[in-house]
Write a structure and sequence with these properties.
CATH class: Mainly Alpha
Strand order of the largest sheet: 1-2
Largest sheet: 2 strands, antiparallel
Number of helices: 17
Strand content: under 5%
Shape: globular
CATH architecture: Up-down Bundle
Order of helices and strands: HHHHHHHHHHHHHHHHEEH
CATH superfamily: MFS general substrate transporter like domains
Radius of gyration: 20 Å
Helix content: over 70%
CATH topology: Growth Hormone, Chain: A
Structural class: mainly alpha
């Protein structure tokens, strides 16, 4: 299927803006409550887990609803508009508890727009000829968004509430405007049809035993994807705090920006490897990159090696996301993409978002504490988060060997 320029423009701006909003939530809400409210590791873990639950439930229900109605455009456009409005409300939050509650509200709109509708739309519009290319570009978005957010945040003093207020206004308004643009540039796939099943039947489709039996390989890949995500979520919520507080890299943005750019380029190119060689031949390298990257981050603290370890970890993470994402989209039954976004998000977000942070919190249980000027204490993340993430990658390699043997 040949895709026109309007598709690529819509994909780029919706994919990038969605990831920018998720980066602010996934990487900077933790920093926000850590700096503004002296949040503990348990607070951060709770916020990540609550958001993961909300994302999974929302994607399951709203993805099903988009299938039932045979619409993606409306969910994407209006979802982004409401997502942007919800982000702006964080400018007025003054407690950990309210941040966690509003994070769940914001996640509802974000998951409706991005996790459910946008991802189903990408699945609708792609095919076996361009899936790897689409996923390669789409999987660049998380690290490109990190680069944009890191660069943009350099001009703000994140120890001041006024800076956070400005940030939330900028990200919120930008997300809202992208949603408005979608009303004019997004086109639903012409082959998209309403589901004739009842809403409940449509909702439960991907959870039926019969569906599992018919799509056994898809579910095995989804399980492996969940293990992959657990590894990432063990360290990711604490990564910026680790750079800044543990390593003392006050200029971590300048140090990590080249690593992000290089990893993004590698990911864009690696999507073509999937198109030519398939999943089994393209999944091993990302896992090796992650494994080696973790090892360097565990063993070394000097800036040069941390840069290399971060680069390998970022590249492994994004290439892995690209390969898993492309394979999952290839295996989803035709006209069922919205219904399968729920089971996808359970494995991509819910399971990793619950188990990963729990493991991270557990390995940081006895982390060093420092005293703040107001008499409170804050924890200092250590390399245990990378060690635990490495163990999970080893488990994933074993799981994938089992899956490949089953499908041989």
């Amino acid at each position: 299927m040949k895709l026109d320029r309007k598709f690529w423009i819509a994909m780029l701006i919706f994919g990038l803006m969605g990831q920018i909003a998720w980066v602010v939530e996934n990487m900077y809400f933790n920093v926000f409550i850590y700096k503004m409210f002296n949040a503990t590791a348990a607070d951060i873990s709770l916020m990540v887990m609550a958001s993961a639950v909300m994302a999974a439930v929302t994607t399951l229900i709203m993805g099903t609803l988009s299938d039932k109605l045979g619409k993606r455009k409306a969910f994407m456009s209006w979802g982004y508009i409401l997502w942007g409005i919800s982000i702006i409300t964080f400018a007025y939050i003054r407690s950990v508890t309210l941040t966690i509650v509003m994070d769940c509200v914001m996640t509802f709109f974000g998951s409706t727009a991005n996790d459910a509708a946008y991802n189903a739309w990408l699945t609708d519009r792609g095919d076996s000829e361009n899936r790897g290319k689409i996923e390669g570009i789409n999987s660049m978005m998380p690290l490109i968004s990190i680069l944009i957010v890191f660069g943009g945040f350099m001009s703000f003093n994140l120890d001041e509430m006024s800076a956070w207020k400005t940030i939330y206004y900028i990200i919120g308004i930008a997300t809202l405007l992208i949603g408005i643009s979608g009303l004019f540039i997004i086109e639903d796939d012409p082959n998209l049809k309403k589901s004739e099943d009842s809403f409940l039947d449509t909702l439960l489709y991907s959870f039926r035993i019969s569906t599992f039996k018919e799509n056994r390989y898809l579910y095995m890949i989804l399980f492996a994807f969940a293990v992959f995500g657990i590894s990432i979520q063990i360290f990711m919520p604490y990564l910026i705090i680790y750079y800044e507080k543990t390593l003392g890299l006050t200029n971590y943005v300048l140090i990590m920006a080249p690593a992000i750019i290089i990893a993004a380029v590698i990911t864009a190119l690696y999507g073509r490897v999937y198109d030519k060689k398939g999943f089994e031949a393209s999944i091993d390298l990302p896992l090796i990159l992650l494994f080696v990257g973790y090892g360097l981050l565990i063993a070394f603290t000097n800036t040069a090696i941390v840069f290399i370890g971060s680069l390998l970890s970022y590249a492994g993470y994004l290439c892995g996301m690209s390969v898993f994402g492309a394979k999952i989209r290839d295996l989803i039954p035709e006209n069922r993409s919205g219904q399968f976004q729920g089971i996808r998000i359970i494995n991509q977000v819910f399971i990793p978002g619950v188990i990963g942070p729990f493991i991270g919190q557990s390995v940081l249980k006895n982390a060093e504490l420092i005293y703040n000027s107001d008499g409170t204490t804050s924890f200092i993340p250590n390399t245990n988060i990378f060690l635990a993430a490495m163990v999970v990658i080893i488990i994933l390699m074993i799981v994938l060997k089992f899956i490949k043997r089953k499908e041989a």
